[in-house]
């Protein structure tokens, strides 16, 4: 058989794709993650109802059980909440917020961590010592505590109306700023190895600026582990956002995420309306678990010692 050409052909012939096909757990995780992502992104097209359109809500539809129950309604496959909102539609729209916060927080922490680690590892000396001590100090505090601290400071510093408008950005910043030390320490270690290699020394000899060497020569060679850490941190960021929203300090109630839905449903869990909190919880578990399993596979697949 002739070798396949083009980017797709090279991908299908790669060791990464071979490793992916041979892992049933990874394949299932990828399918679940894809379903969660498509359901969230395409919620306006796929959701049976718009749960946040007040004109379509009817309190007479409140607390309807799932469709397969005796009093269920096929118009609400997973039942409704106390406001008559369709739980399935609320999960799809809520997953959009959770994914948005998770992805943006990981991108933010990646940019900050890579920049700090690159500078610390390449410059060295007092700069390296200062930046790494800051990272060490932050690592002594739980990430969720840092996120709560940031949110609390912002709430105290700005009026409530302003905070409600910027709440989404505050959550993204709070989660992202709590995760950058992991990226920084990893990139610093790789940079310490790369900065003494021949191609870097040759670039210095021919007069290339230090900033250009860091960005065009060292940076591309230290990004491999960053992809793995970013994938693993995506699950953490989604879970952190759900935790903050469950505690009531996350996104505003007008834009509820999965954590907010779980918190709302928790008030009715012991009164028999279990579906209001169970189904958002299952969706959150499926999303985070699939992402974490993909991250574990990617870490092992890119580790040359395990090949």
Biggest sheet character: none
Tell me the number of strands. Answer: 0
Q: How many DSSP H or I helices?
A: 14
Compute the number of structural domains.
1
Domain ABC transmembrane type-1: 95-295
InterPro entries: BP-dependent_transpt_permease, MetI-like, MetI-like_sf, OppC_N
Main location: membrane
Keywords: Cell membrane, Membrane, Transmembrane, Transmembrane helix, Transport
Please describe the topology of this protein.
Elements: H1 6-12, H2 15-21, H3 24-41, H4 43-46, H5 87-123, H6 125-139, H7 143-157, H8 160-177, H9 180-194, H10 198-205, H11 210-218, H12 224-246, H13 258-266, H14 275-301
Helix pairs in contact: 3-5, 3-14, 5-6, 5-8, 5-9, 5-12, 5-13, 5-14, 6-9, 7-8, 8-12, 9-12, 10-11, 12-13, 12-14, 13-14
Architecture overview:
With 307 residues, the chain is mostly helical. 69% of the residues lie in helices and 0% in strands. The chain has helices spanning 6-12, 15-21, 24-41, 43-46, 87-123, 125-139, 143-157, 160-177, 180-194, 198-205, 210-218, 224-246, 258-266, 275-301. The radius of gyration is 23 Å and the shape is globular. The chain has one domain: Orthogonal Bundle (MetI-like fold). The model has no long low-confidence stretch (mean pLDDT 85). It is built from 14 helices and no strands. Residues 95-295 form the ABC transmembrane type-1 domain. Its main location: membrane. Belongs to the binding-protein-dependent transport system permease family.
